[in-house]
Amino acid sequence: MTVAVDMGRDAAGKAVSIDLEELLATRLLVQGNSGSGKSHLLRRLLEKSAGRVQQVVIDPEGDFVTLSGAYGHVTIEAADYSEREITGIAARIREHRASVVLSLEGLEAEGQMRCAAQFLGALFDAPREHWYPALVVVDEAQLFAPAGGGEVAEEVRRASLSAMTNLMCRGRKRGLAGVIATQRLAKLAKNVAAEASNFLMGRTFLDIDMARAADLLGMERRQAETIRDLARGHFLALGPAVSRRPIAVTIGPVATSARSGSPKLVPLPQAPAEDLHDLVFGGEPIEPVLPLAAPPPPPPVAAEALIERIAADPAPARTDAPAQPEVDVEAVVADVLRAIVAEPEAATRGAAVLYQDYQVRCRMQGLARPPLDLEAFTRRLAAARAGIVDGVDDDWAPAMALAQELPGEMLGPFLLIARAAREGAPAPDDAAIAAVYGTSSLGRARRLIGYIEQRELIVVRTDLGGRRSIAIPRLGWTTASAEAA
Description:
The chain is built from 18 helices and 15 strands. By secondary structure, it is α/β, with parallel strands linked by helices. It folds into 3 domains: 4-258 and 300-312, P-loop containing nucleotide triphosphate hydrolases (Rossmann fold, 3-Layer(aba) Sandwich), CATH 3.40.50; 327-391, no CATH class; 392-485, Winged helix-like DNA-binding domain superfamily/Winged helix DNA-binding domain (Arc Repressor Mutant, subunit A, Orthogonal Bundle), CATH 1.10.10. Helix 4 packs parallel to helix 11, helix 5 runs parallel beside helix 6 and helix 14 (374-385) packs across helix 16 (411-423). The longest helix has 16 residues, at 109-124. The chain is elongated, with a radius of gyration of 30 Å. The protein starts with a strand and ends with a strand. The model has no long low-confidence stretch (mean pLDDT 81).
């Protein structure tokens, strides 16, 4: 059963959701200039999926620590711990499935990259028995996976980039689903961005970023100008977890807020100029009316105490999630194959391309692991193209045994002929055979029939009226006569 996360509304006012299970398998990239609403989008995703999946947030600005009060996330102030303690905490997080926010606010850029590398490396190196599914959200990802060198040490840059690459390229098998957000695609390492299959593109102004965003969304270059005109909180979405075609999404409201908000205009002080002069240059002290100072930060928590808290407070279980019903695997596979074959463009697409579509459709119908590998799918696809969608029963076993003597791409046309012969239906014409063969050339279809006849699998008879019938002598099946053209 699909677990949908409501993200907002499209241009028509319809709800737009993200398939959480599909997101865990395909990852997400969010892009937009400062002020476009990236952090708001991430907060919406985290709030709506809280309690359904473990969440790990890499937070360079400390904006997401407010999730701890409302949703039970454990806040880790990275500046209070050593690299060794951060590694141990990360290992316990995977073991106990705790949702956490790693706040890097108190560190310089190099320290943030070093800490993120240690933390992500420990998550990635967890033992196999702790490979539970988790969303790993990285805000300002260009800081941790820069496209080029910067002012930090090369060793630190390499370690951080390697950790981000492992998260996006190899993390899926370990249950880690990367959700990365960046202000500029041009500053993000391409091998990190390329591993995402879902995209939410917000407002951006530079031509190079608009061009890359348009390429990822499958838009023409002249359409890239629309990305510049997007309002705050408006994104273009594409991907198997969201939509198969680019759609406009307005992100919905959130329940929590960041500690630092957008700057707002406030009235200037109304004190006379001479009083301001005295305040600036140390004259007679004047008690200004100022906002109350923020309370001092709480004292740092020892690493051992934080580890004990993580162990004692696992991720909250979602009690209102519906029970997963039993799924009829064979029925789902048959429905997916029937839908794929019904698409007009499927006849000209290769099996490897259609196999990806098959996997996505199976997951959307509740199969986390589609049952067919590429080779088995290719044979089932050939049978489906021949009209045999609901599997092959025992009566088909002799025909399938004969088909083993042919190359894989000829299986579909042979089964089409065999199906007509078994039912005593008219022999399929050249156009029908060509369509199953994946070509529009009738000449290729005729040469294919001649090749199969040379292999002594079929016998073609043409009567005086030019009507063709095809027999399969080894099975004792034969079609009725029909026009070949």
